[in-house]
Specification:
Blueprint lengths: L28 E10 L7 E5 L11 H11 L10 E7 L3 E2 L2 E2 L2 E7 L6 E6 L5 E8 L8 H6 L4 H13 L4 H18 L15 H6 L3
Parallel strand pairs: 6-8
Antiparallel strand pairs: 1-2, 1-3, 3-6, 4-5, 7-8
Length: 209
């Protein structure tokens, strides 16, 4: 089984100013909110910025905005630091066509799971469920890689770091740290112990065999 990782996720990101449902085809994404802005327009006025967004914030649809207001309150300034898990819902329609869309499956900072009936389109209501989650712990992956005591620990730390993000720059940092630590952990030919200066040549010659 090949150990090399060839990530193609960056090649399928649409040219867009926001997080797109296509980016979640490979699986859900958990984000931590860094700030929220509200702009003009009726369709997607709310932009939720998050760690690693690369200038492409999550712009929730109206149904998701209702859910967030219900769960977290109307003051979006208080959402910073909170987390949510987003996924691609393939059954979302636009113009009568199945196009897929982003939906929320988990939220932090709620006391329990939520099930609420929300108006979706044309006055229709649908039950929406969201599960409670804890805020993701901040992990110093670079520090863990640099502190690895042996090759097995190094590989484990690197694997965990790689899976924690899809950000190209962060993964490059993890790889550089891994390579540097691997060099440090690799025994060198000249790593033989230095002779004891307290032992003289005469002492060595006089030693019994």
């Amino acid at each position: 089984m090949p150990s090399e990782v060839i990530d193609i996720s960056q090649t399928i990101i649409p040219k867009s100013d926001q997080l797109n449902a296509d980016q979640l085809l490979g699986g859900p994404l958990t984000i931590t909110v860094t700030r929220v802005t509200v702009g003009a327009g009726d369709e997607q006025p709310v932009s939720i910025f998050y760690d690693g967004d690369k200038g492409r914030p999550y712009k929730p649809c109206k149904t998701s905005r209702k859910l967030l207001a219900y769960a977290w309150g109307n003051n979006a300034a208080e959402w910073t630091g909170r987390a949510m898990t987003l996924y691609n819902e393939p059954d979302v329609k636009f113009g009568g066509e199945l196009v897929g869309g982003i939906r929320i499956s988990h939220l932090s900072d709620i006391p329990k799971d939520i099930r609420v009936s929300l108006t979706t389109t044309r006055g229709k209501k649908a039950a929406t469920s969201v599960q409670r989650m804890d805020r993701p712990e901040s992990v110093d992956h670079v520090g863990l890689i640099k502190a690895a005591a042996d090759m097995a620990e190094l590989e484990a730390a690197f694997a965990a770091a790689w899976k924690s993000t899809k950000d190209k720059a962060e993964r490059a940092e993890f790889l550089a740290a891994k390579d540097a630590r691997k060099v440090a952990l690799t025994p060198k030919p000249d790593d033989a112990p230095a002779p004891d200066p307290a032992v003289t040549a005469d002492d060595t010659a006089a030693a019994p065999y």
